[in-house]
Specification:
Strand order of the largest sheet: 16-17-18-15-14-19-20
Bound molecules: nicotinamide-adenine-dinucleotide
Number of helices: 15
Oligomer: single chain
CATH superfamily of the largest domain: Aldehyde Dehydrogenase, Chain A, domain 1
CATH topology of the largest domain: Aldehyde Dehydrogenase, Chain A, domain 1
Number of domains: 2
């Protein structure tokens, strides 16, 4: 029997899975709490197991022949309908996502949730616009065709859950694959609401499924199922290693968008004020952004001037309830995560790194952490080499461009990079030398859906975004026809 829907701030949310167009319960449940007030339980969600995973993959496999046989334009009709429904529900989705994982409600409402609708529209249209690469050689006419690959498993993390789910599911669906989405157990709500909207949009049963539960249990069972033909994962390198092993076993293409430790390089010729303001902005969302430029690398001659400004901008942050318009600093997602973040800072302090600012829980009982800045002893310090995923930045200096690049490339990560300089030639040269999937010069987080997105090193495998994601979700085929052999 399905579990009763939960009333969360006046919104009805199903705590169950969504499989083959129906709500499916699990006897075991997991608890979801709000980081805005940890005493507040939001609901008990279904904790799927191996049987749930098999059921969801069966639904996706059964729906695949019908969905993949539709033309991109036919699939686009469903996706545009879904985008309209997302647009009509932005305020509700933003409110519940804010309660669930504490990103600022205003930015969810203005930017993050509307981007979900754009993801579906953009991929629906892009799939329709595909122009097969065509050329003649060796007496044959060649064309590259995209064939839908099969059921895709999409696994998402707890930060930006709605945006990431839509960003990853939209290309899979547009390419003709069916989907099983497994959202993170720390923020399960908006995936359940997305399933309601997919249902309302009239997608055929089984084309889109949501399975709730614990990663190591139901997530692991999903990725091990040999019927799954694509795995698209966003999360930590630790989980990626396990998921990648399952993908390798079944010989399934796998993309991984993982953590970051991105450099934020400031040259002496930069607009220091703009750089300092943007550096203080790396604390936004309590630093729980994979792309954040968490390693400030500043040219020695402007270190003090930059630091003074950056600390002044940091002081302007207002920790508070993410639903309030004046708040700029949200709490961390979970007490375990708060303890993890603080553990990094405590170990850095004990090892002799200099804590220049912050380093404490803001208020006992709450999950807010002070914006923290640490000057490490060396580039090998743990605080430099490992992703903290909290409001903790490091400050290092460099003497010249070669040292800047060496420090920037001096971790195993390579998700993004930020460079501030006033010199066009330097912007180009340094932009080319920083090892990262995306480098922003004199800006940050400006995203274009058609650009490739992903990481180097342990920040990931493969690229999503635009045609890259559609290619990933397709089996590319070369069709060669002997010229003159057909009328
Ligand atoms: P996580 O790896 O712990 O979990 C991510 C998802 O994987 C969750 O849904 C979880 O249930 C599932 N999972 C965990 N172990 C699994 C297993 N063995 N098999 C199958 N599924 C499993 O990550 P998190 O703590 O939720 O998210 C934070 C991490 O995500 C950070 O490292 C952050 O940088 C990264 N991230 C990266 C991007 C990007 O685009 N590169 C975007 C957002 C977050």
């Amino acid at each position: 029997m399905t579990a009763p829907r939960i009333d969360i701030d006046g919104v009805s949310v199903s705590p169950d899975h969504y499989i083959a167009g129906r709500r499916v319960p699990s006897e075991r449940r997991f608890e979801d709490r709000s980081p805005l007030d940890w005493t507040r339980k939001l609901g008990d969600f279904a904790a799927g197991d191996a049987e749930t995973a098999a059921q969801a993959v069966s639904a996706a496999a059964d729906a695949f022949p019908g969905w993949s046989a539709k033309s991109p334009a036919e699939r686009a009709v469903y996706m545009h309908r879904l985008a309209e429904l997302i647009d009509a529900n932005v305020a509700t989705l933003a409110r519940l996502e804010c309660l669930d994982m504490a990103m600022l409600q205003e930015s969810l409402e203005l930017r993050v949730i509307p981007r979900g609708a754009r993801n579906f529209r953009a991929y629906a249209d892009l799939a329709c616009d595909y122009e097969a690469r065509a050329w003649n050689s060796n007496g044959t006419a060649n064309r590259v065709l995209r064939m839908p690959a099969g059921p895709a498993v999409i696994i998402t993390p707890w930060n930006a859950p709605f945006m990431l789910a839509t960003w990853k599911c939209a290309p899979a669906l547009a390419a003709g694959n069916t989907v099983v989405l497994k959202p993170a157990e720390w923020s399960p709500i908006t995936a359940s609401l997305l399933a309601d909207l997919v249902d309302e949009a009239g997608f055929p049963p089984g084309v889109f499924n949501v399975v709730q539960g614990i990663g190591e249990e139901v997530g692991a069972a999903l990725v091990a199922d040999p019927r799954v033909r694509r795995i698209s994962f966003t999360g930590s390198p630790e989980a990626a290693r396990q998921i990648g092993a399952a993908a390798a076993h079944n010989i399934v293409p796998f993309t991984a968008e993982l953590g970051g430790k991105s450099p934020f390089i400031v040259f002496a010729d930069a607009d220091l004020d703009a750089a300092a303001r943007k550096a203080a902005g790396q604390y936004d969302d309590a630093g729980q952004i994979c792309l954040a430029g968490t390693r400030l690398l500043v040219e020695q001659s402007v270190r003090d001037a930059f630091l003074e400004r950056m600390l002044a901008y940091t002081d302007e942050h207002v920790a508070g309830d993410s639903r309030e318009p004046g708040t700029t600093l949200s709490p961390l997602i979970h007490p375990e995560h708060l303890a993890r973040v603080h553990g990094f800072v405590e170990r850095a302090r004990a090892a002799g790194d200099r804590v220049l600012r912050g380093g404490h829980v803001t208020k006992e009982g709450g999950l807010w952490y002070e914006p923290t800045l640490i000057e490490p002893r060396s580039n090998e310090a743990e605080i430099v080499q490992h992703e903290v995923f909290g409001p903790v930045l490091t400050l290092q200096t460099f003497a010249d461009k070669d040292e800047a690049v060496a420090l920037a490339n001096g971790t195993h990560y390579g998700l993004a990079g930020v460079v501030y300089t006033g010199d066009a030639a330097r912007a180009e040269r340094i932009g080319q030398r920083v090892r990262a999937g995306t480098v922003w010069v004199n800006c940050f987080l400006v995203r274009d859906l058609s650009a490739p997105f992903g990481g180097c090193g342990i920040s990931g495998i493969g690229r999503e975004g635009g045609d890259y994601a559609l290619d990933f979700h397709s089996d590319l085929k070369t069709l060669q026809i002997l010229e003159g052999s057909t009328a």
